[in-house]
Amino acid sequence: MFIVDSSVELQDALRQSLDDLQLARCVGSASTQAQAQDWLQANAQGWDVLVVEPELRPGNGLALLELCRDRAPGQSLLVLTHHATDAMRQYCLAQGADAVFDKSSQLVAFLSQLGQLKQAQVASR
């Protein structure tokens, strides 16, 4: 998993939770659009799950949706935001996101999605 969020604290908390729950192994993270783009372009096949926050400082996580539109089969793009409005959900899904979750009210659903992705990945190997 690669995590893109402007909050380093959230990146660390998410990484620790995922490790504790054995849901995913974090291969890296970025706080800005530029950092994320550089990593994703250098590691196009280096991730199975990309978690993106649309609001980055500086930059815009939504631009990463376009960058990853032609990702490999088996790579999932999840949006995790505090602003999961209907309009934001529709936009992200139309741009290729697999799912959109609200950070404050849908963390259980987010973790459940990661569990399903992990099971599907194990089954395909």
Describe the fold and architecture.
The chain has 125 residues and is of the alpha/beta class. The protein has one domain (2-119): Rossmann fold. The protein contains five helices and five strands, in the order E-H-E-H-E-H-E-H-E-H. It is globular.
Topology, element by element:
Elements: E1 2-4, H1 8-21, E2 28-30, H2 33-42, E3 49-52, H3 62-67, E4 76-81, H4 86-94, E5 99-102, H5 107-124
Spatial strand arrangement across the major sheet: 2-1-3-4-5
CATH topology: Rossmann fold
Cα separation of the termini: 17 Å
Parts with pLDDT < 50 across at least 5 consecutive residues: none
Quaternary structure state of the chains depicted: single chain
Q: What class would the helix/strand composition place it in?
A: alpha/beta
What's the CATH H-level homologous superfamily? Response regulator
Rg on CA atoms, Å:
13 Å
Name the helicity range. Answer: 40-55%
Question: What would the principal axes of the Cα set say about the shape?
Answer: globular
Largest sheet features: 5 strands, parallel
Mean pLDDT: 93
CATH hierarchy, class: Alpha Beta
* CATH-scheme architecture: 3-Layer(aba) Sandwich
Q: Please tally the β strands and state the result.
A: 5
Helix-strand topology string: EHEHEHEHEH
Q: What is the percentage of strand-forming residues?
A: 15-25%
Offer a concise description of the structure.
The chain has 5 helices and 5 strands, in the order E-H-E-H-E-H-E-H-E-H. The chain has 125 residues and is an alpha/beta fold.
